[in-house]
Amino acid sequence: MRSIRTILAIAFAGSTALALAACGSSSSEPSTKATGASLVSTPGYPSPATESLGGKRGGTLEVLQESDFEHLDPGTTYAALDYPVVFATQRPLYSNKPNSTEPTPDMAAGPPEISANNKTITVHIKEGIHFSPPVNREVTSEDVAYAIERGANPDVANPYLKTYFNSLEGINQADGGPIKGIETPNKHEIVFHLDEAKGFFVAEALVLPLTAAVPKEYAEKYDKNKPSNYAAYEVATGPYMLKNDAEGKVLGIGYVPGKSATLVRNPNWNPKTDFRPAYLNEIDIKIGGSEPVIDRQVLEGTTIVQNEPVPQSGVRLAAEHYKSQMDISPGGGNRYVALDNKVGPFANIDLRKAVWAALDRVALNKERGGEVVSTVATHFLYPTINGFEQAGGLKGPAGPQFDYNEHPEGDMAIAEKYIKLAGYPSGKYTGTQTVQVVGASSPPEKEDAEVVNQTLKNLGFNTKLTLVEVSTMYAKYCGVPKEEIDVCPDVGWVADFADPQTVLDVTFAGKSIEPVGNVNFGQVDNPKINRAIAAAEVVQGKEARGKAWAKIDDELVEDAAAVPFDWEKTARLEGKDVHGVAMLWNEGAWDYSFTSLK
Amino acid sequence: MSRRDLAGAPSTSEPLLRVEELYVEFPTEDGVVHAVDGITYQVLPGRTLGIVGESGSGKTVASLTTLGLTRRQGARISGRILFAGQDLVTLPEDRLRAIRGNDIAMIFQDPLSSLHPLYKVGAQLIEAVRAHRDVPKARARERAIELLALVGIPDPARRVDEYPHEFSGGMRQRAMIAMALANEPKLLIADEPTTALDVTVQAQILALMERLQRELGMAIVIITHDLGVVAEMADDIAVMYAGRIIETASAARLFAAPEHPYTWGLLRSIPRLDGPRAADLVPIPGTPPSLIHRPTGCHFHPRCPYAQPDHARIDPALEPTPDEPSHYVACLLSAQVRRGLWRELAAGRTPAQALEAVGQPGAPA
Amino acid sequence: MIRYIIQRLLWGVVLLIVLAVLIFILFRVLPTANPALLRAGRDPQPKLVKEIEVVLGLNKSLPVQCWDYLKEIFLHFDFGYSYYSQESVRSLIAEDLPETLSLTVGAGVLWIVAGLSVGIVSALRRHSFLDRALMGGALVAISAPEFWLGLVFLFLFASDIGKFKIFPGAGSYVGLTSDPWKWFTSLIMPWIVLASGSAAVFARLMRGSLSETMNEDYIRTARAKGLKERDVVRQGVRAAINPIVTLFGLEVGVLLGGAILVEVVFDIPGIGELFYKAIQTSDFPVTQGTVLLGSMFIIIANIVVDVGYAYLDPRVRYS
Q: Global pTM?
């Protein structure tokens, strides 16, 4: 059902297992060919790299989605479901072509210029890009600056600003007004000044929708409201815009909460400045209904798609009868069993290793649909993320110390060995503590929780299993360290962009532990790993970063900080007459700017 | 709107209703219920026939069958019921329906449950009228008020808009009678009309019925277990037991010279104002027999104080008495013995004493 | 009679207040997430969460929140603003009310008509094959959950995904004023799905009640009067309805509950779907508002039934 995980994945340079089309040349021509087979694409299904482009121009695409959008304001958005609309209408400084995790200059005229001391980033802005009606004027660097600055406005509260831009000068005093570290020497140049040598990393973060231009004189009256309702009046820079009236009002017209959204062509969009082909004339999104019905309506339909992760039943249906209408995308993130490293029995590393050894990860993946949509995980970085191969690729890190990782179906003998090492000579846990397990109540998370619970019982633990709604699971139990939940059997993470730091930092660094909304679910606070993380944050260059973070990944495996079990692939469905093009970097969601009708 | 021709006088001998060899059986899970076991009787125009018997004697079933009201219950009916030249047993439903509430009307024991509680009394009367005559509602309403007045209900114009539960018991029965009379039936069947009423009201209702009979010249069949009622009203009486008529005679004759031990039992079990104060009531011992498994031979023999051994084998037929051809009785004892026994019983003797006095214990006639 | 009605209405208001408090407590006590947290987005900073709590009024103590909430509703008819979309709950409900009314009123009519007819036919032909078939079907209809039944109907009869493409599929609802024919055809399946359980219950009860009634003395009298059988049955039905009329008030509640799921399956943009989504996002003002609205309808339905009962049964009037 609904996932609140973020889904923004971008990789600088394609040194990942998934061979990607190099889209080195500048703006317009979208890349099409796959170079080399992918280790994690699924045989028999169109993999994103081989999807051919180019249907006819024109037509209206119908989209069915069960859930409503969370945030369409580029300054607040982060959910996978919001991105197809956001990225069809907003142009950040850099963005991704659908079949790629390599950023392409979008609003920017060229690659970022990073100073030698890694503390200054200069970006040139393209000329001739205009806002949609009713603003109409040309976009300037000040608009980009405002877009980022408003993220610090508590009534906008961008979720990434303090995480990725915390080295920006003056960020700590920022509250919506000008930020010292953002400079606009002229209308088409923007310069970022950092007080730490993190330029390379921050430049990678410029793909976030936060950097999509927002016209200050138009938006500031909306940003004054608590919370800001700029989204109700937002303007666009991309090929499409949310339908609005003469005053710019979107709410009730281009977006009717709970009911529909309508994207029409942005009359001020200049195709010469953009790599997007924008075949469709209109995209009509209908919100509501229920998954099983939507899946069938799409598969039986013609110019219609759905744009949410397809559950198992839908995958099965499509696999049996509508193979050509299903797209399966890797890079959907990882899933792991979080174990409380701080308090309770699993503060003991050997017990953690025992759980790892005993867990039948193959069974867990079967629950989710098997090979088609999931891959058994052996470490934390997942395919399409820089560093995946260096961390051991599919097999994971090698060595005798990783014996508990060798048998994905589970190996009780090895598990018993570790339990004995933990001080229980019988090979079964005989301690008195009851283990609290909190999982989600909807399938397949429910089944996952039950498998994990049973594994714990087999190891001798007394467990108390609680199943709640998934958002409650995160917000009330697993994300609150005070609750001291020992096992959260089904948590996961998707990168914000393809730099491995975004996968491992907030999830496993000691400093990332928060009292509420905590995503370091296991309260992992290993000093050695913390030091390695701090060092890796400032490493420059793709290759080097991949290597550094791969090492951290392996150290996490050695520490059995959590038990990874799944590298997700996500499925999407399209109607018969749709040439769907999927966003590889956004869990395979359909990219409206590249999709066309047959 | 009333008939003048048959007021009061004894009518011609052409029977209005003639029931011949009527059998009514109900198949049930426990066996076949022989509710009516071959009865024959007739009703003359303008006269009153009383049918007397205990509950379970078949008296009600016989009357319901006349109007075809047992057809729905899965009854197996044989015999003939002749009315106005038609056999009601075989008459199709729609033709029979034209007779119900029109030429033949029926009133029932409990007027509270027999009137629909949720419709006004007037509406129910109007319905009875319009079921058979095509009159406008306003006219039917006038007729309803007329009828209520006819049966002696005060302030009928107001009463016509009231509900049955707003009437007293006696008034309700009057209203039922009014409803039955709506279309001036030739025959009124009254099933226990006074049983649910107080004694004083009973008398009023019976008087009312008699008056209406005189005014409208209709025949009445009155069904009851109460001999006092038939003594009052009936010209002729038929006594039923276990689904059969076991004695029938004119009312005067039956009370003066009953010939069946069951009838004696009925008469002797009523307190009489003019009897000896110290005389005991003599109830009939035992209970009525099951209509599924009836006694062999004479159906009354298990309860008869005067039964002889072969009465358990031989089933008596209904035959005329020697000295009065219109008086029929079904008994195996000789007429002589019977008269002797009655003489004793009428004098106040107990059945055992009477038997001894007549002197023939065990000897048939 | 007037006094009685006024009495019942006043009592209804008291009941609503009590319900409002109970609803408030219920939604605070359930293990849902703090809505401020959910709105704070990814990686919420505690400071931000606190600020949102202030905006939403969640920082005040529970009794104070409850008191504010009651005041707003009963004095100003203000149900607050959705945590999710900031729209006023009252306007959200008003917007979606016509759809839900279309669905529930239509289903209500079908429920009564179908229940009545099936019940009467079954009672009159007791133990026949038709009776057994109808009652068997009724049992299935009662047991089948609306969501499942709705899916079955769609997979069988929907024009887009069904085996036999007869009725418009999910999501094809349009307002009555824009296209009456489409409005009607898109509601046929939802009406059947929603009404089936209640109609089946009604049919079974009607069958029992009418069977008993037809054995009453006054039915015998009606026949003895020479009435056509059809009129006799009408009298029977009139009497048979009374004992089950009180059921109506209760079934309205079941109908409203079922409407939620039916709206979701058939994608009808009514209050049911609104409520469903509000639960998923811990949008208290919306959930509270819709539950309260539903309660109000049920209370009104029960008052109507109670008052109607006095009209239906004259024996009850003067007590």
A: 0.80
